[in-house]
Amino acid sequence: MTTMQHEFTADRQVERKRAWSNWATGMLFLLPSLLLFGVFLFYPMVRTVYLSLFLTDSQGVPIVFVGWENFLNLFQSTSFQISAKATALFVLYTVPAGIVLATALAILANQKLRGIGLFRTMFSATMGMSVAASSVIWMFLFNPSIGLFNRILAALNISGVQWLLDPQYALLSVSIATIWMNTGFAFLILLGGLQNIDQSLYESARIAGVSESCKLRKITLPMLSPTLFFVTTVSLINAFQTFGQIDLLTKGGPMESTNVIVYSIYKDAFINYNVGSASAQAVLLFVTVLVVTVLQFKIGERKVHYQ
Amino acid sequence: MRKVELKGITKSYDGKQDVLKAIDVTVEPGEFFVLVGPSGCGKSTMLRMIAGLESITSGELALDGKRANALTPSERDLSMVFQNYALYPHLSVEQNITFGLHVKKVSKREQKERCKEVCGMLGLTDYMKRKPRELSGGQRQRVALARAVVTQAPLCLMDEPLSNLDAKLRAKMRSEIRQLQRKLGLTMIYVTHDQTEAMTMADRMMILSDGDVQQIGRPLDVYNNPANTFVASFIGSPPMNLIDAEMKDSVLVADGHWMTPVTAAMKQKIGSGRVTLGVRPEHISLAKDSEPGFLVQVANVEVLGTETLVTFDFGEATQWIAKWPGQSSVQPGEQIRICVDDRHLALFSAEKGERIVCEAAPVKKVSL
Ligand SMILES: Nc1ncnc2c1ncn2[C@@H]1O[C@H](COP(=O)(O)OP(=O)(O)O)[C@@H](O)[C@H]1O
Ligand SMILES: [Mg+2]
């Protein structure tokens, strides 16, 4: 009896030892990414929240603890309100239109035709282009005197538009360029989703004699919904964080009409040296993205049909 | 009910190699026609051409006597059950079954009624609101079946519908499908790689190999009179035992020392060449004392309850299987004396493997 008990405790000790060594090995594997995340993500995040509660000097060193004051100032500032509105509009312009466009292109490119590979490459090409290169292209297209758009308008006898300089059009123009830049990624993911749909579903529908539009509504879109959901989530987050093309095309102008929050953060932090306010905006942006994403999961996922 | 005629149907996917070569066959109205053959022989291709899912490279397809080559799948008025069932994962069983009925101008009310009736017939009434992923394999199979039946199309095509089910359920569904087909008077074209399904379900069957028709006929005719060695070894479980034999004087010699005398008529048919000799397992028995037999060594014994399969070494490199009724007490390693029922000997030409038909049976008991 005692020997059995003795053996039992010995077993337990061996088990515990093994569990501990397993845990240590696992941690060792996690260490590089934990370190990277810690240095480049977790620490800056915590630091941002901390800074948002302080008044800082021009080097970003916190001087006075001011509590919620940075936030209160923001809510009262018209500049911030314009910024928030521009961001919301930008998301509204780019995300739905971009996804509809990418879905339409993906459905087109999913046909079995000779040379369809060429179109697939073309439609996904923007994924391989840097924001800088794309912005330069669009800068030329939008150019009031030599740009393609105004030439087309001129050919139609319509007077030209100051695409990037007119506060009425600037945000729309940047949105159009952004849609174009983001289409490649969404297209590629959606095409992959389409190709994953079991062909026999369509064959069965063909035997039933169902129309093409009915196939689209009853088979393609529901079967594609998990992919659409993923693409929507990523696009939303991306849209909230757009910076490059705004900096290159409009620099937040004219009259702050394209001064989306990320750009406003950049300006406050690195041009006006108002790190406290920039941090507060960053915190607000983070919370907004978080809330939108959570809402999307709560509402959107109900409409998704996982297999 | 619907008559399906294939006249010289050929299919090539790449324009070079023919996957199906000049298929000629007529499926009679109300017939249960089984297309059987090993994997990759072109069964699915043929079925999909009949359905209109695959274009016909050359030849003519006629439905009820009318050319149908250019008709779309829906114009052919048929239903199809796919191997993976092709159920819509996002629709309920009921929606799956009635999917596409609106195209045929069936009113909402009638759709409901038909669905109810079919579900009752197939025992799905309790599952109508469920999604396919909440069903077992057998239930999904039934939904696929229900979807074919509910269209009331006179021709039903099935592509290996039972291959995803376990053996027990498969046997049950075999009989259910057959009863359903009879009850509804459907013309059925059924694809399978399983010779048991073909034997048990078919009115007539077609054996396909590498895109070539090997034989068309009723199951028992095919079993008793296989047209060639391929059919002989494909149909029947265990398959027909085969061995090369040579004509010497007036006896057939297999593997150097097993001998069987043949009649004059047979001898004439065979000539002096080599042949392949075939015997079904059930025609090999333990020799009684008075009978001429020959000694073999038992390699393996499988007792199945109602019958026993005895594998024995026959000649240098061949193993044959004998099937005896009852539970035999033969042990592996034992030497036994066996005797072959000569009335059931089958002969095939050695080169092409085609059957050599001999009307008169040999006179004497074989003493191989
Ligand atoms: N879509 C296709 N394109 C090219 N070859 C195909 C296609 N479908 C089938 N095949 C070829 O045709 C032959 C017959 O295939 P299939 O009809 O599916 O065989 P089975 O159903 O009898 O297993 C195979 O050799 C296969 O490789
Ligand atoms: Mg197949």
UniProtKB/TrEMBL annotation, chain A:
Keywords: Cell membrane, Membrane, Transmembrane, Transmembrane helix, Transport. It is found in: Cell membrane. It is a multi-pass membrane protein. One of its GO terms (cellular component) is plasma membrane. GO terms for biological process: transmembrane transport. InterPro entries: ABC_transporter_permease, MetI-like, MetI-like_sf. It comes from the Bacteria. It holds the Pfam family BPD_transp_1. The keyword Ligase does not apply. The chain crosses the membrane at residues 20-43, 89-109, 121-141, 171-194, 221-240, 278-297. PROSITE patterns: ABC_TM1. Its main location: membrane. Residues 84-296 form the ABC transmembrane type-1 domain. The keyword Metal-binding does not apply. Belongs to the binding-protein-dependent transport system permease family. This is Glycerol-3-phosphate ABC transporter permease. It comes from Jeotgalibacillus alimentarius.
TrEMBL record, chain B:
This is Glycerol-3-phosphate ABC transporter ATP-binding protein. PROSITE patterns: ABC_TRANSPORTER_1, ABC_TRANSPORTER_2. It holds the Pfam family ABC_tran. InterPro entries: AAA+_ATPase (IPR003593), ABC_transporter-like_ATP-bd (IPR003439), ABC_transporter-like_CS (IPR017871), ABC_transpr_MalK/UgpC-like (IPR047641), Mo/tungstate-bd_C_term_dom (IPR008995), NA-bd_OB-fold (IPR012340), P-loop_NTPase (IPR027417), Transp-assoc_OB_typ2 (IPR013611). GO terms for cellular component: ATP-binding cassette (ABC) transporter complex, substrate-binding subunit-containing. Keywords: ATP-binding, Cell membrane, Membrane, Nucleotide-binding, Translocase, Transport. Residues 4-235 form the ABC transporter domain. It comes from the Bacteria. GO terms for molecular function: ABC-type transporter activity; ATP binding; ATP hydrolysis activity.
